[in-house]
Specification:
Layout lengths: L24 E2 L1 H5 L7 E5 L10 H8 L6 E2 L22 H10 L7 E5 L7 H10 L5 E4 L2 H7 L27 H7 L6 E4 L3 H5 L16 E2 L15 H12 L7 E4 L6 H10 L6 E2 L3 H5 L13
Parallel strand pairs: 1-5, 2-3, 2-4, 4-5, 6-7, 6-8, 8-9
Length: about 300
């Protein structure tokens, strides 16, 4: 199975502990200043759900940010599908750690993930790193689209392969389907669905075989986190909107989901940008939920 291409890095690189670090977003200007910084690992996570086999590989080969490695959402950032674990199953901590090590990531590295623009796929890598305790991880705000619109450097040169050893410092909790189902009668969790409104309502379903949403879930399409130029909206605006959705409930009660555990990470990131602690994810999401017909399905607006 193809694996992530890996970046060149210096074995003598110093830790970032005494330097500035980024844990949510990084601007194109800030990244440009660190292109030659051996402490940085840049990862290209471009992907297209309609062209999953070739889009990311082809886009990377045609040009990427200098020094960037490539990680494929399906091959590298997901476990094998079984038919009951959703479309982008979360790898085990051990499997994810192996991939991160192949990418050249260890505890000393500042990681920057980017995709074609709005951060939906880059947020998956960001969340997985934060899940395993690597807090020096950021998404490039505006992604490759903003980078190239500013005429910043692009290369077709592959990075040299030099693996590292990634050791999780913790494994943050997630929520599984059993936990979601157990919470429904007592409304113990506040579920937030990151899919487009028409998919949430069940008006259409373009990817999964069943339309609708988990009963009681609220809808916040991840695109609402973005300004018109594809960058994230100001933290204060995001905070106001998430506060309204919480409606007095603790952020610990909130669980994010989407179609397959990818775009939901964007809402986790947006909440972190807004100043919340990391909130929990249901990694299997809708595509896993509907594999068991005993699990309830709702349609329409809450």
């Amino acid at each position: 199975m193809p694996r992530a291409s890996r970046p060149q890095r210096s074995t003598a690189a110093s830790p970032v502990a005494d330097a500035q670090s980024w844990s949510t977003l990084i601007s194109t200007e800030e990244l440009a200043r660190h292109l030659d910084d051996p402490r940085f690992v840049i990862v290209d996570v471009r992907h297209d759900l309609a062209q999953p086999e070739r889009f990311g590989d082809d886009a990377y080969a045609q040009g990427h940010i200098p020094g960037a490695a490539f990680a494929h959402i399906d091959r590298d950032l997901s476990a094998p599908m079984t038919g009951r674990n959703g479309r982008h199953p979360l790898p085990s901590p051990e499997a994810a750690s192996e991939i991160f090590g192949q990418l050249g990531i260890d505890a000393t590295r500042q990681v920057v993930a980017y995709d074609q623009g709005n951060g939906m796929f880059a947020a998956r890598l960001w969340w997985m790193l934060r899940w395993l305790g690597h807090d020096r991880a950021a998404v490039l705000d505006g992604g490759f689209a903003k980078w190239t619109s500013e005429k910043r450097p692009v290369t077709t040169d592959p990075p040299a392969a030099e693996p590292a050893t990634f050791v999780p410092s913790r494994v943050r909790p997630t929520v599984n389907a059993t936990g979601i189902a157990a919470s429904l009668p007592r409304h113990g969790l506040l579920l937030l669905d990151a899919r487009a409104a028409e998919r949430y309502r069940g008006d259409v379903e373009t990817i999964d075989p069943v339309a609708g949403h988990i009963p009681g879930a609220l809808n916040r399409p991840y695109t609402r986190n973005l300004a018109v130029d594809g960058t994230f909206r100001p933290p204060r605006e995001l905070r106001t909107e998430f506060d309204a959705m919480l409606h007095g409930r603790a952020a610990d009660d909130l669980v994010h989901y989407c179609g397959s555990g990818v775009s939901a990470c964007h809402n986790v990131l947006a909440m972190a940008v807004a100043g919340y602690p990391l909130t929990r994810l249901y990694p299997g999401s809708w595509s896993e939920w509907i594999t068991d017909r005993r699990r309830p399905v709702a349609k329409g607006q809450v």
